[in-house]
């Protein structure tokens, strides 16, 4: 059965169907109106019945899994459910929904709320987590934001990413080779100083535009 990955349609007289049904009901209980305590906190040694955590991605065991406190063969313990593409979970300590997509738990966009991401390094290549965000460059040293080819990072057409230069370091947007920016292959442009910003939009295959407070044309 697609969607939740459940099993069904057992044959008459089939043995061990009880175990399969119990495991399916566990998945249903965890995912219907799913809510997790946290995605950043470490799993406690002992949980409460029905308690769910999202395992941190850097965890050595079952990264990104849903950890459900349950009993297996009468022994209490954490049961790990491997997430499937598109699963959504409410995370209580963040007050937000997360969706499993592209192998990571990403925030589900909320109307009128734009996530802020701070860039502290001198170079940043756009990644899927940046879509729909405002990227703020905060350092005193120049920063280059690179638009990768879609073979590297498959942004959807229509993706919007805003960039704001908060710090004194000049922020430059540079397209990788084979990627056009405002019609220029491998083009680049700097923002027009501190507190200036630009809106990046993917308008086609490896084709992006940028509009905003820019220091000159794309070249």
Keywords:
single chain, 219 residues, mainly beta, 7-stranded mixed beta sheet, 4-stranded mixed beta sheet, 18 strands
Helix count equals 1
The value of Rg in angstroms is 23 Å
- End-to-end span in angstroms? 53 Å
> How do the helices and strands follow one another from N- to C-terminus?
HEEEEEEEEEEEEEEEEEE
Estimated share of beta-strand residues: 35-45%
Looking at the chains present, what oligomeric state does this protein adopt?
A: single chain
Number of strands: 18
Concise synopsis of the structure shown:
With about 220 residues, this protein is mainly beta. The chain is built from 1 helix and 18 strands. It has one helix at about 15-30, and strands spanning about 35, 50-55, 65-70, 75-80, 90, 95-100, 105, 115-120, 125, 135, 145, 160-165, 170-175, 180, 185, 190, 195-205, 205-210.
How are the SSEs placed, and which strands pair?
Elements: H1 17-31, E1 35-36, E2 52-54, E3 66-72, E4 75-81, E5 88-91, E6 96-101, E7 104-107, E8 116-119, E9 123-125, E10 134-137, E11 143-147, E12 160-165, E13 171-175, E14 180-181, E15 184-185, E16 188-190, E17 197-204, E18 207-212
Parallel strand pairs: 1-5, 8-10, 9-11, 10-12, 11-13, 14-18
Antiparallel strand pairs: 2-3, 3-4, 5-6, 6-7, 12-17, 13-16, 14-15, 17-18
């Amino acid at each position: 059965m697609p969607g939740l990955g459940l099993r069904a349609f057992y044959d008459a007289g089939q043995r061990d169907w009880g175990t399969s049904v119990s495991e399916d009901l566990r998945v249903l209980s965890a995912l219907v109106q799913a809510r997790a305590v946290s995605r950043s906190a470490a799993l406690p040694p002992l949980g409460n019945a029905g308690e769910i955590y999202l395992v941190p991605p850097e965890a050595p065991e079952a990264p990104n899994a849903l950890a459900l406190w349950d009993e297996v063969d009468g022994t209490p313990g954490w049961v790990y459910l491997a997430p499937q593409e598109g699963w959504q979970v409410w995370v209580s300590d963040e007050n937000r929904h997360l969706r499993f997509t592209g192998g990571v738990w990403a925030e589900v966009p909320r109307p009128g709320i734009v996530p802020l991401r701070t860039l502290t390094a001198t170079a940043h290549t756009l990644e899927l987590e940046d879509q729909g965000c405002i990227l703020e460059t905060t350092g005193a040293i120049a920063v280059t934001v690179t638009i990768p080819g879609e073979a590297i990072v498959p942004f959807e057409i229509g993706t919007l990413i805003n960039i704001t230069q908060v710090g004194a370091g000049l922020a430059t947007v540079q397209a990788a080779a084979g990627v056009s920016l405002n019609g220029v292959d491998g083009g680049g442009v700097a923002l027009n100083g501190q507190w200036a910003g630009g809106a990046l939009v993917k308008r086609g295959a490896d084709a992006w535009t940028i509009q905003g407070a820019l220091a000159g044309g794309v070249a």
